[in-house]
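4.2 Preliminary Data

To establish feasibility before requesting continued support, the project team ran the inverse folding procedure on a target of 295 residues. The structure was first converted into the token representation described in Section 3, and no sequence information of any kind was made available to the design step. The complete token record follows.
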């Protein structure tokens, strides 16, 4: 399998022009489901990232909905006036939330599930049901963090409209593969993509994106992004691209490349003292050059 290197052209290819007479409802809708009483920050980072990416606010997504447990609704709302935040029923996602979430899924162009959800049996059972419903409707779907643990309970291939974004630990739980070097990472990611019939983004300093037939590598020049929360922002960036872009593999390559270049930019400004929220203000600075308007 040919392995390529992600480049600036991936950002250009994944960008989507905005129609002059469009509005927030015609510029795509992303749904983010995450958070628990213990982890309230992750879904906010995802929503803000999707809100600020070229495929989100700058070129695509006009509507972002964040669903979090009722117990953390207030602090999440206070973090940004741009967020539309809707409550789940308790401290964690559960089956009782599925009827309302199915309605949100039906209205969304892309669904991101996972950041900060927690790993209780009840939550993972609800996630598996939610994944199955997204697949039934052939929705674009990004599974990150804790939601990846529910993939084994879905009992079907995820399809080309889905993307899973595991780190090494999450990847090992799914595949049991040893990730010894770059070549081993590429081959292991390829095998998992073929097994699940979907797109895989294996996080790491050398991030691997593959659909089982092709693969690209994204590698930043520094370790600036090796801090908590940056993986959640990455899911938001890619989710934003996926909202309007018809090609999930392309969206993943563009999102991973964009974040890597932002990491290099932040290193020049902050060294190894950047935090995840620093990425958000850099997104439009990087992407404005690709803005296009059509009649």
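Position-by-position output of the design step:
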């Amino acid at each position: 399998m040919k392995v390529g290197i992600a480049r600036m052209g991936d950002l250009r290819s994944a960008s989507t022009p905005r129609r002059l007479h469009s509005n927030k409802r015609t510029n795509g809708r992303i749904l983010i489901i995450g958070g628990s009483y213990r982890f309230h920050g992750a879904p906010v980072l995802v929503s803000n990232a999707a809100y600020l990416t070229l495929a989100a606010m700058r070129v695509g997504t006009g509507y972002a909905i964040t669903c979090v447990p009722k117990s953390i609704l207030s602090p999440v709302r206070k973090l940004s006036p741009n967020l539309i935040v809707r409550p789940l029923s308790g401290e964690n996602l559960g089956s009782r939330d599925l009827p309302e979430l199915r309605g949100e899924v039906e209205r969304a162009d892309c669904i991101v599930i996972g950041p900060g959800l927690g790993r209780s049996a009840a939550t993972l059972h609800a996630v598996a049901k939610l994944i199955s419903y997204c697949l039934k409707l052939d929705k674009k779907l990004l599974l990150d963090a804790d939601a990846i643990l529910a993939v084994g309970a879905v009992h079907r291939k995820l399809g080309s409209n889905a993307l899973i974004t595991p780190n090494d630990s999450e990847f090992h739980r799914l595949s049991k593969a040893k990730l010894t070097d770059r070549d081993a990472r590429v081959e292991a990611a390829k095998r998992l993509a073929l097994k699940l019939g979907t797109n895989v983004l294996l996080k790491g300093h050398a991030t691997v994106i593959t659909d089982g037939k092709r693969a690209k590598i994204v590698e930043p020049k520094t370790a600036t992004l090796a801090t908590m929360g940056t993986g959640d922002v990455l899911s938001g960036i890619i989710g934003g691209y996926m909202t309007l872009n018809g090609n999930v593999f392309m969206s993943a390559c563009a999102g991973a490349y964009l974040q890597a270049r932002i990491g290099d930019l932040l290193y020049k400004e902050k060294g190894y003292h950047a935090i995840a929220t620093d990425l958000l203000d850099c997104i439009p600075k990087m992407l404005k050059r690709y803005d296009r308007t059509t009649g």
